[in-house]
Amino acid sequence: MAWPATTRYGLPVAPGNLGLVQDFLNTITEGTIAPPDLLATLNDAQEWADQVIEQWISVDDLGWAKTLPRLTENDRKALVAFRDQLFEGLFGHSHSETAGGPARKNPTYHPVMTVSAGGIELWPGGEGWKYFETALLLICHQGQLEGVLRRMKSCKSDTCDVVFYDRSNNNSGVWHDVKLCGNRANVRAHRARSAVN
User: Fold this and answer.
1) 174 three-state secondary structure
2) What does the pLDDT look like over 101-141, one tens digit per residue?
3) CA distance 52 to 22
4) Any idea what the CATH number is for the domain that residue 47 is in?
5) Structurally, how many domains does the chain consist of?
6) Which residues pair with 119 in a beta bridge?
7) Longest CA span, the chain
8) Is 169 helix (H, G, I), strand (E, B) or coil?
9) Tens digit of pLDDT for each residue in 72-105?
């Protein structure tokens, strides 16, 4: 089993549970290769969800992964809106052209804290897909604390938002695919310089 959205771009995946966040964000339609948006229809979203939950269960080291109920159309729409919010929160821009409009809400998520002999533990709260969304946020929070979330990046290309995990030593990667998006940007820059001369 593999992360279905990320592997379709031929990318290595982020480590552990962070792979779930990367895969969720990579359900988008990227501008040039244009694979389908995996959350575009209820059937597509359910197919992605079934695969991603199975993969998440296989790599989860936090004990958070669990089988979730079938998606409804309202769940699908909520996941698309949440994906846009997560793009904005992590990368400072939204993937969707309609995100950030006046009708948009910023929901509150409620993790659960427990005290045990091992100390204080944080768990995703909520039911169904609210649980899934809360888990994604907690995984991002843990990634912030561990200093690895900064390696999760959205491709710098104007026509591409594919999310990649930067494994370079100095965390300097900017393209999800240097040959594809990097070369395109270099050609545009060369043409712009040539037009000026």
Assistant:
1) coil
2) 444 466 778 889 989 888 888 899 988 899 999 999 999 99
3) 11
4) 1.10.3300
5) 1
6) 116
7) 70
8) coil
9) 999 999 999 999 999 999 998 776 644 444 444 6
